[in-house]
Every structure is written in structure tokens, then in C-alpha cells.
Amino acid sequence: MMRLAILGASGHGKVIADAAEQLGWQDVIFFDDAWPSVKENGPWSVNGPTERLIERVSEFDGVVVGIGNNRTREEKQCELARAGANLVSIVHPAATVSSRASFGPGTVVFANAVINPCAYVGGGVIVNTGAVVEHDCVVGNFAHISPNAVLAGGVKLGQQVWVGACASIKQLVSVGDASIVGMGAVVTKDVGSGVTVVGNPARIRRQ
Q1: 56, 88, 120: which is the final residue of a domain?
Q2: Is the pTM of this model over 0.70?
Q3: Which one of 88, 113, 148 terminates a domain?
Q4: pLDDT at position 40, please?
């Protein structure tokens, strides 16, 4: 029996669990630091906090982090890696991923997403429902490409970048580490690190 542990009893975690079961994982178990207040995540049980997962990590054929927050996901994935977890990627059977694309451990790719040839997606990345990562893109570790967002050819995202739902990024544009591209934004020029851009064309949002 293939056993999968998911750290993070969230809605995002539910989507990972559902995809995993469609891929043939027979036993999917959640862990969450809100336990014991949270003992269920939909139809799946929550069996304890991070510490308990680390104690039991050898019992699982695979482990993945189901936390949407990029920084927290990185912290938890690194903690699990140090504990010797077998960090796996979950690619929904309805996603289209080129055999000439590649991605790192702990990445999840949801239904109707597309990753085209020669794209590289780092570790711990979320390629959400219907998102498109075109040819020759480079996506940094622990980024999140939200539903129906589009990265045109050759786009480069830094680490922990969040691209909002339905946003579009023009070909060959770069977005720096930890920046946020707002929902529906159209990015036509390079974006620096640690900023938020919104609108069409996208501009830096002033605080």
C-alpha cells in the first residue's frame, strides 16, 4: 500500500490529496500544527502536528507540504528534508507536462495545468489549476502560480514569487524573489524583488 503524508490540513491540501488518490496513493494522511483542534480535513484524518510526522516519517512512501503560504511551505519542506522525508511531487493525471520539462521535489501540479518543453519548475512550487508554464520558463523554488495564470515563453520567476489568479506575464520577462503579481495583472516589463504589482499594464503598488 502506497502511503502519503501531507503536512497542512488546508483546502490546498485537499486538492493535493484528491490528486494523489487519482494517481494511486491508497492511504493519504494529514498532519497539521493545529491538531488536536483540527482532526479532520474533509474525508481525510489529521494525525498530529509536524513533530509527530517527523517521528513517523519512515512509515510513509512519500511526503508533501500542503501549505499555500510560500515562506511557510519552504520552512516546513526544509524541516522535513532534514528529517529524511521522501519529498515527492504530485502531478494530477489531467495536467499536461512535457517529458522535456523538469521540476524539483515537493512540487504540485493540478488539473488542466500545462508545463511545456524545456521549462524548469523548482522544488516546492504550486502550479495551480489551469495554470500555464510555457516553454523555456524558469520558476524558482516555492513559487505559487495561481489558477489560470499564464507565464509566456522564457519567463523567469524568482523564489517565493506569487502569481495571482488569471495574471499574465509577457515572454522573457523576469520577476524577482518574493514578489507578488496581483490577480489579473498583465506584466510586460521586468519586476524587481519584494514588490507587488497590479493592473494592466502592471505597476508597482505603493503603500
Answers
A1: 88
A2: yes
A3: 88
A4: 96
Could you give the dihedral angle defined by the CA atoms of residues 34, 35, 39 and 45, in that order, rounded to the nearest 10 degrees? 100
Going from the C-alpha of 148 to that of each of 39, 100, 110, 118, 128, the distances in angstroms are: 32, 22, 11, 20, 8
pLDDT tens string 125-160: 999 999 999 999 999 999 999 999 999 999 999 999
Give the distance from CA 141 to its chain's centroid: 9
Q: Give the closest residue to 157 by CA, choosing from 92, 97, 103, 111.
A: 103
User: Has residue 207 been placed in a domain?
Assistant: no
How far apart are alpha carbons 61 and 4 in whole angstroms?
6
SS3 content of the chain, % helix, strand, coil (to 5): 15, 30, 55
What are 67-123's pLDDT values in tens digits? 999 999 999 999 999 999 999 999 999 999 999 999 999 999 999 999 999 999 999
Same domain, 155 and 104: yes
How many Å apart are CA 37 and CA 86, to the nearest integer? 27
Task: Name residue, grid cell 532534514.
Answer: 82
